[in-house]
Amino acid sequence: MTTRWGSVPLDAYEWREWDGEAAVFVHATGDTHALSADASALLAAMRNRLELELPASEWLALALEAGASDEGYEDVLMQGLETIGLVRPTTP
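The structure assignment produced for this chain is given below.
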């Protein structure tokens, strides 16, 4: 079964974006994280579609307006965003 992913509520973190990259402050942990351009695009796509819960590959395709690149790349991005508290796996 493919894991589906959704965004945490927007009020769970503060988001600042510039030049295709972003920094986020996560309220629950008090930590600030710099995001790569791809992770920033992925999170932006999820912020704009809070009602969706999609597989990682579909989120990456929406974010980058292209198919997934390296196999497993989207899972690495999602797991990184999950680790810092910005996305959550959901059940289908």
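Interim note for the steering committee: The mean pLDDT is 83. DSSP finds three helices and six strands in the chain.
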